[in-house]
Design a protein that fits this description.
2 copies of one chain form a homodimer. Chain A is α+β, with helices and mostly antiparallel strands. The first copy, chain A, has 2 domains: 271 residues, L-amino peptidase D-ALA esterase/amidase (4-Layer Sandwich), CATH 3.60.70; 119 residues, ArgJ beta chain, C-terminal domain (Ubiquitin-like (UB roll)). Chain A contains 11 helices and 15 strands. In chain A, strands 1, 2, 3, 4, 5, 6, 7, 8 and 9 form a 9-stranded mixed beta sheet that branches. In chain A, β11 and β12 form a beta hairpin. In chain A, α2 packs parallel to α3 and α5 packs across α6. Chain A is globular, with a radius of gyration of 22 Å. Chain A starts with a strand and ends with a helix. The relative contact order of chain A is 0.14.
């Protein structure tokens, strides 16, 4: 299947509008309230944090998605996470959703998302007047404005859109996201919102999103911390005019899955590259395990190792740390089969260290994209994970945040 | 049971000698070869890294300990880890053990340990002449000299000794260890050696060590990386003259277990406090889980969170990160029961944020020992973990190591 990258983010697919406005939740005065709106009711899907300390919005959305209720909007604020806020936090989440529904004059549900400091109540005094504002600001080219309003410590906005042909119709899928660590319970929760004009049944759409997430957002790591607010939401509104997909193993379903995977992976890589303090994107490819799950775990372990990450920051081709991370990943392998490559530099084969040009390898580690390849045997399992280096700036950003 | 802290480290118990000499393996020229010797054959016990990329010495020792062979010495070098070194590495480990045996003129086994850079062969040209040297240097007060020879990036030597009365006899137990991160596959593997003059059967001694390890070395974390070389070895030589312990649930066994726990915990805390770049010791106490294992996991998750660690370094009483770490630990609890305390500052009770004096709490985080208390319910499980803050110096040390 062929698709192409296009502009437009979440408003690239037909029938979507978006906006971002300033409610006053961020001390900086930057925009902090975003709305994504589908002109017709859409089929929702969602993947949520596995933490048992969860923000009110996570519980709220999960109920709506589980019931497969039609959804027509996603409201997201940055500034307060609305996590650890008890019953008041729950009531505020519900009120935000209902106010948005009223302003939009829709019967379908509104999903809500928050990111920011844990343990502080939403500033409802600021949000109540801002919700009508953000509804009035909705535009068919409003994706970038929404993308800007959801970021926190992120240095750049993150967005992607693809266009492809499925069942004779042009189908578009777009996304915006935020996150500057894999998860930062305080400031930089990972939130990702996908819009799509394909027609797909709710159970199939949910399964597709779960699969796309497994090979993308679940494979990035900045600091190993999982947030109270993490969520990936996806809407499919059918406006492309294609016939409804109802079977996961149909050709149109597979084509849509490929596009969804690509959108999620592109966003995941943007998050890893913008990891707090990061100076490069680290991509780790593992092959030769018994199955995909094992390869993914090992790739994540390597990409998440503080020692590997600091070696990359130091431009130090210190491959022993990669070997050690493989060994402790929990995936068993025969160490005499271990093959490790940093870029084009083979540093170990058959478990034996190889001579290599350290100077050139160190130079390679200055690249914008640093790739590590690991093979641990003859199995067919492969997996990729993305992360970033660990720099002084990661410590600075996270040590000096609230004080 | 009452015991007291005494001086003397691994040579405090009766019948032990130790030494450290310069073989020339460390570029700095500091001492780098240590020997611990029991004047009579001793019962060994050991706990080893769970990594499947393992140094030759790990495999070598594990075989001897599993067979419960009598052991009379532990030889340890710093400089090369002898990991990822294939068959040549294995042969070198065996040769080191055999040379030491010959020089000591003993029939009992010699255990070997290495720490340093992965993937480089032991400098046997330097070790062969140094082994007779270290045997000649053995002294009954040589513990500190041995402790100095095993350290790498450690800023201080680590040692402890206790004296207590068991079954009417004075029993002593001592230890030295090294490690400046929980594990640093490259430079700072965790090694700990315990000596004891109690009389105890091999299976009981092994079980005791496994238990002591679970509540001490397994509960410290500096960076979450597990080494290829980690090991905890313990010898019991019976020289105290006490009757042999053969039952785990006997009173003398329980007394010895308490002393062994205390020795291991003291060493573990010394390692966490000396974590690379650390400016304080972080102690996390969790209570109210269903069992001890759950409490320990949660305590480790909190102590190991990069976000919690950087907040402590920044003296930022950012308790939301602690709540988030609890939530993602994999231990289920009801978040409306969550209680969090930083020192004496109660920041959350019944899942609700509490007002507290941020200024004073920030001041408290400048302490040498920072304690966090978490209660998640009414269960009887409790657990403690130790770690340290994440500072600029951690990044500097690990980014700039080999280049």
């Amino acid at each position: 299947m062929v698709w192409q990258m296009i502009d437009g983010g979440v408003t690239a697919p037909l029938g979507y509008q978006a906006a971002g406005v300033t409610a006053g939740l961020k001390p900086s005065g930057a925009t902090d309230l975003a709305l994504i709106y589908s002109e017709v009711p859409a089929v929702p899907a969602g993947v949520f944090t596995t933490s048992c300390v969860r923000a009110a919005c996570v519980d709220y959305n999960q109920r709506i998605v589980a019931r497969q209720e039609p959804v027509q909007a996603i409201l997201c604020n940055a500034g307060q996470a609305n996590a650890c806020t008890g019953l008041e936090g729950w009531r505020n989440a519900v009120e935000c959703a209902e106010l948005t529904q009223q302003e939009l004059q829709i019967a379908s549900a509104v999903l809500v998302a928050s990111t920011g400091v844990i343990g502080r109540q939403l500033r409802m005094d600021l949000l109540r007047p801002a919700i009508p504002q953000v509804v009035r600001a909705l535009r068919r080219d409003g994706s970038e404005s929404a993308a800007r309003a959801i970021i926190t410590t992120d240095l750049v906005t993150k967005s992607v859109a693809l266009s492809g042909e499925i069942a004779g119709k042009n189908v578009k899928i777009g996304g915006i996201c935020k996150g500057s660590g894999m998860i930062h319970p305080n400031m930089a929760t990972m939130l990702a919102f996908v819009t799509c004009d394909a027609a797909v049944s709710a159970p199939v759409w949910q399964e597709m999103l779960t699969r796309a997430n497994a090979g993308s957002f679940n494979q990035i790591t900045v600091d190993g911390d999982t947030s109270t607010n993490d969520m990936l939401l996806a809407l499919a509104n059918g406006q492309s005019g294609m016939p409804m997909i109802t079977e996961l193993d149909s050709a149109p379903a597979q084509q849509l899955q490929e596009m969804l995977n690509a959108v999620c992976q592109a966003m995941a890589k943007q998050i890893a590259r913008d990891g707090e303090g990061a100076t490069c994107l680290l991509e780790v490819n593992v092959a030769g395990t018994a199955d995909v799950a094992s390869a993914r775990v090992m790739a994540r372990t390597i990409a998440g190792s503080a020692l590997v990450k600091s070696a990359v920051f130091g431009r130090d081709p210190n491959w022993g740390r990669i070997a050690a991370a493989c060994g402790r990943s929990g995936v068993y392998f025969d160490q005499t089969k271990l093959h490790i490559q940093i870029g084009e530099f083979v540093v170990m084969t058959e478990g034996t260290p190889q001579p290599f040009d350290r100077q050139s390898a160190s130079q390679y580690l200055k690249s914008e994209l640093v790739q590590v390849f690991v093979r641990v045997g003859e199995g067919s399992g492969t997996g990729t994970a993305w992360g970033c280096d660990l720099s002084y700036d990661y410590v600075r950003i996270n040590a000096e945040y609230t004080t």
